[in-house]
Design a protein that fits this description.
It contains 5 helices and no strands. It is mainly α. The protein has one domain: AhpD-like, CATH 1.20.1290.10. Helix 3 packs across helix 5 and helix 4 crosses helix 5. The chain starts with 6 loop residues before the first helix and ends in a 7-residue tail after the last helix. This is Alkylhydroperoxidase like protein, AhpD family. Keywords: Oxidoreductase, Peroxidase. InterPro entries: AhpD-like (IPR029032), AhpD_core (IPR004675), CMD-like (IPR003779). It holds the Pfam family CMD.
């Protein structure tokens, strides 16, 4: 994916395809959803921090869908551009050059989800 990717369209397409898996593999998908709910449940780490961690892992793992979904969540949770960028810096540190390419995509994805924070 590139910085010209529309992450809202990408996540909508992924959601549609995941819906097919939900229909054909309900037990697996229910298990995944339960794991997701448990991992994101309130605890010692707040929801925004958990989503920042997920974004960093998504970048280091080179997952465009992860970038799309987690930047959307971060925008809903009120993450700042500075918080996202610091998270991306750690992901690049841990993932090297390939992670840098996905971090650049994550900048674009967050700007699409929180356009009020994008530079003019």
């Amino acid at each position: 994916m590139s910085s010209s990717t529309d992450y809202k369209i990408l996540t909508r397409e992924i959601s549609g395809n995941v819906g097919q898996l939900r229909a054909s593999q309900p037990d697996v998908m229910q298990g995944f959803n339960a794991m997701s709910k448990a991992a994101l449940a309130p605890g010692a780490i707040d929801a925004k921090t958990k989503e920042l961690i997920a974004l960093g892992i998504g970048v280091a793992a080179r997952c465009d869908g992860c970038i799309g979904f987690h930047t959307q969540a971060l925008a809903r949770l009120g993450a700042t551009r500075a918080e996202v960028h610091e998270t991306l810096a750690i992901a690049v540190y841990m993932g090297g050059g390939p992670a840098l390419m996905y971090a650049a995509n994550a900048v674009a994805a967050f700007d699409q989800c929180a356009p009020e924070q994008a530079p003019a």
